[in-house]
Amino acid sequence: MVAVVAIIIIGSGGDDNNDSTTAAQTTPAATATGTGTVTTPAPKPSIQVITIKNGKAVGGVQTVSVKKGDRARFKVVSDADHEIHLHGFDIAKDVRAGGSVTYDVKTDAPGIYEFEIEDTTTKIGQVKVEP
Description:
Immunoglobulin-like; five-stranded mixed β-sheet; four-stranded mixed β-sheet
């Protein structure tokens, strides 16, 4: 009986420290698939940022290019209160000084759709939808 207890203690390492990590804990995705490869989710697409300073788009008029059927995503950051109007989709959003607004629209038809500071009719960008 004493020999059995000694074998169990020696076999387990006799250590109560639970800080050890096994390969299964560090690479569960690789062992779960059985293929040795790790599949990671696709990163979210980056969002284009258009910055308005002193009533104009920094860097000039910006173009957001997408394929028909994709989503056009962009953010407008402003140093002053404005209404930003996306023509063709007829979406207008108010942006506060120091704030931002985000657009996320499904594109159904090829074309070029301007967006502007509505109160000054200053063009700050365009969504270009390609076939």
